[in-house]
Amino acid sequence: MHKQYSQDQSFDRIAEKFEKNIYGTTKGRLRHELLEHYLLQHLSAAPMRVLDAGGGTGVMSQTLAALGHQVLLNDVSEDALSIARQKLADFPQVSYHCGPLQSLAEQEPFDLILCHAVLEWLSQPLDAIDGLLAKLAPGGKLSLSFFNRDAHLFSNIIYGNFDYIDKDFVVPNRVRLNPNKAVCPAEVLRFLEAAGMQVVHKAGIRCFHDYVRDKSIQTTHYEQLKAKELEYGTSHPYVWLGRYFHLIAIKPGG
Length: 254
What we know:
transferase; 7 strands; about 20% strand; methyltransferase; globular; tRNA 5-carboxymethoxyuridine methyltransferase
């Protein structure tokens, strides 16, 4: 697993703000609902051992626990896990681990590993993926979603943020809730292919929502936007335009 670099982001002391700013908005709601939709299409009904890596306040862990799966919720933020413990109090099959993944005790491999909206906060995202693959059982599935560097460039050109682009997206006073390092989908796909993983699903997340000129449409026409996301999000070229990229890959040998 990746080393715990100083550039990696933890949400201690701002976990409640993170919860409100992300999941209390249409962009956070849509991201979660789309990921949930795609994930559930690829899950077995049989009980699984699940690792929710960087699962924060437990939004996706709650979905999987409600389906009867055994979930280990991991995060480096104790504040985030405190919120999760309250939220998931009725799900005894959820356990918790605070700290980097490499500090997890040795245990049986997982049938499913989630790593959603985590890679963009890490200084070495590919090292993190390598560590996740080591914890995945043969035939197990890895669900990755991450902030899409290509879409990040596209959107900032549309907004006219040319100085920001020319500085390689680095600003002196970075907002803590803004990701550190957007990730290129093609780079991740090449890495997984080299590792022998079989990618069975690709989707753009928020291919249209973030680009509408009239932002009020995000609320007034939410269901219509979501329907179009689902209709086009897995097809070319829209799969590459989502502000987040989602993939599901299977480890060989199962």
